[in-house]
Amino acid sequence: TGDTKYLKPIPKAIAYLRKSALKDGRLARFYEMKTNRPLYFYRDKDRRHQLTYDDSRLPDHYGWKVDSKLDGIEKQYHSAVSAIECKGADPSVLSAFGGKPSDRTVQVIIRAMDARGAWVEKGGLLKHHKTTPESGVIDCRVFAKNVGVLSRYLKAQK
Question: Which helix (H) or strand (E) covers residue 52, if one does?
Fold first, then answer.
């Protein structure tokens, strides 16, 4: 939508979900209010659903645990922030997106570099519509976003 109000709660939501991750890195489908304990159901001998914290008897017909897609969500979030930055947004608006980037965000950005130190994305070349290099392309928006995040992180280290 281009409206920054929809991006503002995302960093807190991602942090909450990262904190809620199970030992294997996945997320439970349901969490108990107030305790944040994962909730599951199983069928008893009479085929009635029973609520439990125990994940050892889960039926296999439902996704009680789901893969965490938080890295991808965080990447999309940073892309949205980058798009706002590219449009020359007021810096006070950008500070609503977490101020100092987290250590985790910086680690994700650094790990995303290839051996040359470049951020390579899948995609094609703009002037060669039918060309999609197997090695990927360097997208200036990704570069600008990542350098912006790293710069804000370094600035906050003072």
Answer: strand 49-52
